[in-house]
Amino acid sequence: MTEYLIAIQDALPYLLRGALVTIALVLCALILGLILGVLLAVGQVYGNKAVRALVGVYVWFFRGVPLLVLLFLFYFGLFSLLEINISAFTAAVIVLGLISAAYQSQIFRAGILSLPEGQFKAARALGMSDTRAVLFVILPQALRLSIPGWSNEYSIVLKDSAVAYALGVAEVMARAHFVASRTYQHLPLYFTAGVIFLVLTYLGTKSLRLLEEKVRIPGYSR
Amino acid sequence: MDELIFIEQEVLPALMRGLRVSLLLIVPSAACGLVIGFLAGALRVYGNRWIKALTSGYVIIFRGFPLVVQLFIWYFGLPHIGIYLSPYAASVIGFALCSGAYHSEYVRGAFLSIKRGQRLAAQAIGFSTFGMIMHIILPQAFRRALPGCGNELIYLIKYSSLAYMITCIELTGEGKVIASETFKYTEIFFIVGLVYLLLTSVAGFLLHRLENSLRLPGFNHYRL
Amino acid sequence: MAQKKEVLRVKNLTKKYAQKEVLKDASFSVDHGEIKVLIGPSGAGKSTLLQCTNFLVIPDRGRIWLEDREILYTKKKELHEYRQKVGMIFQDFNLFDHLTALGNVEIGLVRVKKMNKQEARERAVAELERVGLRDHVAKYPAQLSGGQKQRVSIARALAMDPSVMLLDEPTSALDPELISEVLAVIRALGEEGMTMIIATHQIGFASDLASEIIFMEDGAIVEAGPPAKILSQAECARTREFCAKLTSLY
């Protein structure tokens, strides 16, 4: 047991630096997913038939193909094919972001659809263009409503980021494996890696709950 | 022409081999995961204090640790305490226990959503506890849990690809092998992706059909 | 000749939740064909009393006899058999959401009484006809009005051939225009000789139908007696107070 604890103690700083990489990876992917997800959601709710079909295909594809396959496809396949020189980290951010966008678009879509029809009508009545209506009336409300679902998405992307290890990204999992293959302390090290993810999940969801409280509109009932 | 022959003689057999292994991974994992999830969900609602605490602990750990980490612990970590699992065994155990934790959340939600009055009415007619669970609670809980658990099964189909990371060579693994030999990453993984897409789409379609056939007027009000 | 046979006897029912005594030493008995009505302010313990009577709530103390036989409710089999003989109607109907009206009435017959499906179906249809819902047998609870739901729940209880029916504020959750259809069914049952204990706010209806009115407050039975007496010349001051408020409404 003490052997385990020593191994963990020695490796911890190294692993925690990996946690920083994980956090960076997750945040970048989520932001990419957020921006693209909002665009997709708006397109799906307010777009014409062609736009809706395109979004539908995008969502179907990126929710149906496994993460690992997409990582390989993009990093070893597409980027090489297009002769784009990209780091493993960037490739992972892009793939995680594209997948997350597909899921986030559905969260936001649900949020937008849950708003009463009158919101858009009132905005138009004031003379707002559709874009303005969406930006200043619809989205502020829909995004607030989406925070719980988004919290779930954060948790998922965080755990998926561990798969980036397959591309050689130096996040927590990769580092744990690196140390373990040298010290043969697999069990305690992977367990510690898992605990680090648990802590990151907890911190993230807690922050999001605080955010939800902070931006809550007084008297708004669901 | 060479390309087509190549595809026929090298790629297809390998991918079929891989697909077979994938299916051998998915089916038992899904079945075990559902059973584990059902038991854990039920115990979390109806168990005593200790059982609730234990199963909650199980769910927190197995939903909190990334699946990759769990797989690595089963395959690389257990040898430390003298248990040596094959890549296949470690994968199935890992998938079953992990998806079981997710299933249990949906099962728990389903049981909790059954109105208290349903139970009272069943008791008032003289139903035994067993009869009440079998004929009143389960038919309703099943319908409530179906969308969530069904989604979880679709996730399992995709996450089965992670078995490659603990050297269990299934569809993704076979693809990687061929691609590294031929450098045709884009084509191979595009095909691999399409196969998974087909699997998840069929599963999704069947799930949708099942949900529709069980649909009851006014019952979907409490959908999660 | 109607025999005065005691159907149900309840003695010293007591129930405490946390520190509050919601039922204090309640005792009463009902003879065959009698209809007793429980009245009293909210929180008086009427619901608790009824739910203790069929052990949906286990009383801390008290004994119950059905047809001269004491019910040993700790024995599961005896408890379930007892409950089949005591029909209960809830304020919230509590119909099984996943079954049609017919299914709701059938299920007790098939799964509890172990009747064969054909007989159960015929009996279920007959009971639904009895409450006037022949045309709604295939509908799900979500498709029925409140009054219809309550009538289905009465049919469901009747199908079990109860010796006594407990009705816990059967019309309190109904829109006013739907109340009369349910009261009509209950009245018909009374005329057919069903022994009933009804907790209700429908005081006009109660005084019409009841053999005895029982006034409860704060978990205790304050007074019991024939409708005419309780409603206008009650012995206890508190009873007179409560009834005065009621009669001014109705």
Radius of gyration of chain A: 21 Å
Number of DSSP strand runs of chain A: 0
Q: What's the structural domain tally of chain A? A: 1
Radius of gyration of chain C, whole Å: 18 Å
Order of adjacent strands in the largest pleated sheet of chain C: 6-7-8-3-9-10
- Major sheet details of chain A: none
Number of strand segments of chain C: 10
Give helix and strand order of chain C, one letter per element, not per position. Answer: EEEHEEHEHHHEHEHEEHH
CATH fold-level assignment of the domain at 15-26 and 33-93 and 163-249 in chain C: Rossmann fold
Text of the CATH class of chain A: Mainly Alpha
Which range does the strand content of chain C fall in? 25-35%
The CATH superfamily of chain A is known as MetI-like
Class derived from helix and strand content of chain C: alpha/beta
Assign the structural class of chain A, choosing from mainly alpha, mainly beta, alpha/beta, alpha+beta, or little secondary structure.
Answer: mainly alpha
Q: Averaged pLDDT of chain A, please?
A: 89
Please give a quick description of this structure.
The complex is a heterotrimer of chains A (222), B (224) and C (250). With 222 residues, chain A is mainly α. Chain A is 82% helix and 0% strand.
Name the features.
heterotrimer; A: 222 residues; mainly alpha; MetI-like fold; 9 helices; flat; C: 250 residues; alpha/beta; Rossmann fold; six-stranded mixed beta sheet; four-stranded antiparallel beta sheet; 10 strands
What would you say this structure looks like, in words?
The complex is a heterotrimer of chains A (222), B (224) and C (250). Chain A is mainly α and 222 residues long. Chain A has one domain (2-214): MetI-like (MetI-like fold). Chain A contains nine helices and no strands. Chain B has a single domain, classed as MetI-like fold, CATH 1.10.3720. Chain B contains eight helices and no strands. The longest helix of chain B has 45 residues, at 2-46. Chain B is flat, with a radius of gyration of 21 Å. The model of chain B has no long low-confidence stretch (mean pLDDT 90). Chain C is of the alpha/beta class and 250 residues long. Chain C has a domain at 15-26 and 33-93 and 163-249: P-loop containing nucleotide triphosphate hydrolases (Rossmann fold), CATH 3.40.50. Chain C has nine helices and ten strands. In chain C, the strands form two sheets. In chain C, strands 6-7-8-3-9-10 form a six-stranded mixed sheet, with helices on both faces. A four-stranded antiparallel sheet of chain C has the order 2-1-4-5, covered by helices on one side. In chain C, a hairpin with a 2-residue loop joins β9 (212-217) and β10 (220-225). In chain C, α3 packs parallel to α5 (146-158) and α5 packs parallel to α6. The longest helix of chain C is centred in the C-terminal third of the chain and has 16 residues, at 176-191. Chain B binds chain C through residues 115, 117-118, 120-128, 131, 135-136, 139-140, 143, 216-219, 221, and chain C through 54, 56, 76, 80-84, 86-88, 90, 92-98, 107-108, 111-112, 140-143, 153, 156-157, 160.
